[in-house]
Amino acid sequence: MKTPNRPLDRRFFLTLSGMTAAALPLRAEAAEERAPEPAAQTGNGEWTYRVADGWGALPTGISLGGTHGAIATDTAGRVYVSTQSATGIVVYDSDGRFVRTMAHEFPEVHSLVHATEGGVEYFYATVQHGTPTDNWLFVKMKTDGTVVLKITAPAEAGFKAANEWRLTAAVPGPDGSIFIANGYGDSRIFRFDKTGAYRGSFSGKGDADGMCNCSHGLAVDTRYDQPLLLVCDRENRRLSHYDFDGKFVSNVTQHLRRPCQVSFHGDHAVVSELEGRVTVLDRNNAPVAFLGDNPEKEQWANYKVLPEKVKPAIFSAAHGCFVDRDGNIYVSDWNQTGRMTKLSRVV
């Protein structure tokens, strides 16, 4: 069959020095292949974030190890990521460049809260120490890792064995008192004065109001006229307020996915949840955004899942969280090989 004549497409010709030459069209799909992938995003509205790709890369020979810990910053904006390994605490500058490691003597740093007192910066931390690995203590350290105070299990607690004192969180109160959660133990919250002297305890294991089933995270909530102690009652799936005399005030948010830690940004609270999500709450403690919500339930609270199996901007077991002064959010998943994500706020 004779091929029919077709009109010439002028796009296929170039005029060069007055002469016409045929030219092949560019493949649009090839150009698209060379374009960089857009950064993964999560959230909604003013709480929209993109993943800071490559943030927190480590030099050869250093690894995060397990990330069963927390995140904090100092006044200079350096970021401190605690680990469950001999790496201790990893320090980055504000751009995510590696600075140093510290606190190597603790095989696990579970919680980390920054405070400035008398012009000196400190971290309040709960750590494992020595062997066996169920030995826990509170440490107050300077930002270079120098320990200035330790608190071990008080005799007044009535513990019969070392594994009854299994700490999860610690914060300084408004008057300098130290509040320590025995979240992996009997869920009591212990109060000490600023020198480490025992002053009492409250709450304990249970699901009734004022009780906790894993008092996993503590934070000082200053969003209201009266500062309050905010407790992540993980296995009761709620956040609760107490005053600093230990009196229960109220359960403020319920039906969360195993809340671990809380960080504040203005009137908002950012909550890491072990079952694959981070939730942002408003001043009324109502959810306004969900970040990194993982649709694959088999990855929820899965310590052994490989980080590369978890999609960017998705969390498998959000454990540590911190929101910086610019609204950027840092999240560490509970993971045996380590997983750290920075979410940069889209403005």
TrEMBL record:
Name of this protein: NHL repeat-containing protein
Q: Where is the signal peptide?
A: 1-30
- Which SUPFAM superfamilies has this protein been placed in? Calcium-dependent phosphotriesterase
Looking up InterPro entries in the UniProt record yields:
6-blade_b-propeller_TolB-like, TAT_signal
Alphabetized, the UniProt keywords read:
Glycoprotein, Signal
Protein source organism: Granulicella pectinivorans
Is the keyword Ubl conjugation assigned to this protein?
Answer: no
Taxonomy of the source species: Bacteria, Pseudomonadati, Acidobacteriota, Terriglobia, Terriglobales
